[in-house]
Amino acid sequence: xxxxxxxxxxxxxxxxxxxxxxxxxxxxxxxxxxxxxxxxxxxxxxxxxxxxxxxxxxxxxxxxxxxxxxxxxxxxxxxxxxxxxxxxxxxxxxxxxxxxxxx
Length: 103
Description:
By secondary structure, the protein is of the alpha+beta class. 27% of the residues lie in helices and 17% in strands. The chain is globular and about 45 Å long. It starts with a strand and ends in a 5-residue tail after the last helix.
């Protein structure tokens, strides 16, 4: 039986925020771009690897679904499960990766 998985590079701050929240059963692994994610089917595995220079796998999960949402709606739906303490922090992190202003 073949096992499919994706190793996705993730933000260290996203990881550090979520790792101390053991009560979470769902997290939002967001992307700073609006591209549609089609690499996995529901039930397949997602592994999270930190950016360089840390370059190691820090966790994983079972993929459920992907949607393209405005940041404000993602915050409304997932709150701190987005890996940030606030909507402003999440927007600032997205802007960092897009290399633009947060609004």
